């Protein structure tokens, strides 16, 4: 590895140490359905976001709640203290498309219909408001 690439990689690693995030990969639901839920909590305070996800009717909200709890735990682990009420906020959250499983379904007259079973990856960042 060249000198410039190595310096860039070290800078990226150092930047990750000051960010508090969690990822959940290969969630078996479409990214479009997941983005509806993610848009509900973007920019919210974490306790309010947890309440919103808990009482949401969407099935995807359980997966987003799991990622949010993990991100909060990561923040507490790196800062070696518990988060206070109203301290943490969801700063960034995004959903990327994962692998798509392609299946065939029998159809009339010898045809086959395509079924695309989509998956997604969730990345959620939390931080304090004063940063």
Describe, in plain words, how this protein is organized in 3D.
This protein has 131 residues and is an alpha+beta fold. It is 41% helix and 30% strand. The strands form two sheets. The chain has a three-stranded antiparallel β-sheet with strand order 1-5-2. Helix 3 packs antiparallel against helix 4. The radius of gyration is 19 Å and the shape is flat.
CATH structural class: Alpha Beta
Q: Structural class, judged by helices and strands?
A: alpha+beta
- The tally of strands reads 5
Poorly predicted parts: none
Order of helices and strands: HEHHHEEEE
When the domains are counted, the total is 1
Question: Biggest β-sheet, characterized?
Answer: 3 strands, antiparallel
Q: Provide the helix percentage.
A: 40-55%
Question: Would you summarize the structure shown here?
Answer:
The chain is of the alpha+beta class.
What's the layout of helices and strands?
Elements: H1 3-17, E1 20-27, H2 31-41, H3 46-54, H4 61-79, E2 88-97, E3 101-106, E4 112-117, E5 120-128
Antiparallel strand pairs: 1-5, 2-5, 3-4
Helix pairs in contact: 3-4
Keywords, separated by commas or semicolons:
alpha+beta; 4 helices; 131 residues; 41% helix
């Amino acid at each position: 590895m060249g000198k410039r690439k190595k310096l860039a990689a070290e800078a990226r690693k150092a930047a990750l140490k000051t960010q508090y995030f969690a990822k959940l990969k290969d969630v078996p639901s479409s990214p479009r359905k997941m983005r509806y839920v993610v848009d509900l909590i973007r920019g919210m305070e974490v306790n309010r976001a947890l309440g919103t996800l808990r009482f949401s009717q969407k099935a995807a909200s359980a997966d987003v709640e799991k990622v949010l709890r993990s991100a909060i735990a990561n923040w507490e682990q790196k800062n070696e203290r518990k988060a206070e009420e109203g301290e943490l906020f969801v700063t960034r959250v995004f959903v990327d498309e994962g692998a798509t499983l392609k299946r065939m379904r029998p159809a009339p007259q010898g045809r086959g219909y395509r079924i695309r079973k989509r998956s997604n990856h969730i990345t959620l960042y939390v931080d304090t408001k004063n940063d």
